[in-house]
Amino acid sequence: MATDYDAPRKSEDESESIEALKERVPDKASGSVDVEDADNPSGFELPGADLSDLELDVVVLPAQQDEFTCMDCFLVKHRSQAVLSADGHLSCRECEA
Question: What is the DSSP string of the chain?
């Protein structure tokens, strides 16, 4: 069975006037603002806000046997990324490139 995609898809009982559609849409200039932000329920953080009373719980692991710290970018990388630089210190391949 073939489908005619160019045929109109509305039947007479589904069609609504533009005025009826406009009545269902809320007025943008009504002044009501949705202040609840589902992505950030704790509120907005402004730049320069005082965060001194905030406590962070961070677990810092010691360096593993197969890791080193790059002396150029100071990132902890896997030993397979280690390159001895001309200065004699360990660098990662990205910094030496």
Answer: ----TTS----TTT---HHHHHHHSPPGGG-------SS-TT-PPPTT---TT-------PPPPTTEEE-TTT--EEEGGGEEE-TTSSEEEHHHH-
